[in-house]
Amino acid sequence: MTIFQILVAAAHAAEDAQMDNIQMEGMHHHEVGGLLTIFDVLVIARWIHFASVFVLFGSSFFWFYMGHERLSSGPGGLPRAFRATIILLRVAAPAAAITGAAWLAGVLANMTGGFSNVVDPETLRLFFFETEFGPVAMVRLALLAAAVGIAALPWHGRVWLSTLLHIGAFLLITQAWLGHAAEGGAGLYGAIMIVSYCVHVLATAAWVGGLPPLLFALVEQRRFNLHEARDWTLDILSRYSLMAMTAVAFIVLSGTANAAFRVAGSFGKLFYTDYGNVLFAKIGLVAVMLVLAWFNRFVAMPRLRGASLKGMSLIVKLRTSVAFELLLGLLVLGVAAILGITPPPQ
């Protein structure tokens, strides 16, 4: 069975299991416009929302470890890549807001039996003021509104990037209280679950969210001569790979801890279950990403460092590899969107 067949089967099984990401009574099968179920809306909204928030955090963070000189148009600067990142951030902020609201609407529809009840004032009052999820939802809506406002400002720079970076970080962290990580309770065990989740999403967002500006930077190298392009490409990749290797270490450790929490320490529960199938599909995609990252860092970069006239062709191959790594990262986020609404085998 292929990864995609596993995902489709697990997605339908999760839908039949009738559970959402906050473990309410069940996943309702009411359709939206005769086409989409509540489950579909939740998966699509979560997928796009994850990708958008990852960009807010990871793409903003990219320009801090690249150095201040990269923002300029002088020697070593990447003005075109920076402008492309600004455009991406200004698209990501409203996309995160729209899909964040759609995610919330899906949760409310699931809780109340359909989307027709989402706009009911009494339903909204009960959710925001009478449930433990309401305050978190209000904080997230405020953060999303702030992200849209900041992204729309005509000026930009390190303060602008820092603001979006912190908003993205808080959006990632607050997701912990809307999913499986919130099931540990108010004690030490629950706090460790929350911290593990936060470390996992922040490290993953730094890695995957940094890929778009990295790709922009590699594309911009085309306007330089071979010597400059090779030196600056190696410098950019070295800085990114150092960050990525640190992030991956945190991802592996926190991901292992998260899986242990979901199965109460018994990893055998992951086999032959829907949650395990989706998790293994996610691990498989991440493993391919790691292989690509390893190849770029320990094979492609040394080859480029010793290249002469063939250096430009190696840079092109690196761009292609980073683009494929980004595509895999988007697929991982899609799997994560399904995983969050699949009941763990506890």
From TrEMBL:
Membrane topology of this protein: Multi-pass membrane protein
Q: Which residue windows are transmembrane per the record?
A: 44-66, 87-113, 133-152, 159-178, 190-219, 240-259, 279-300, 321-341
Q: Where in the cell is it found?
A: Cell membrane
Its keywords, alphabetically, are:
Cell membrane, Membrane, Transmembrane, Transmembrane helix
Asked whether the UniProt record includes Manganese among its keywords, one would answer: no
List each copy of the Copper resistance protein D domain by range: 236-339
Note the Pfam families from the entry. CopD (PF05425)
This chain belongs to the protein called CopD family protein
Organism of origin:
Methylocapsa polymorpha
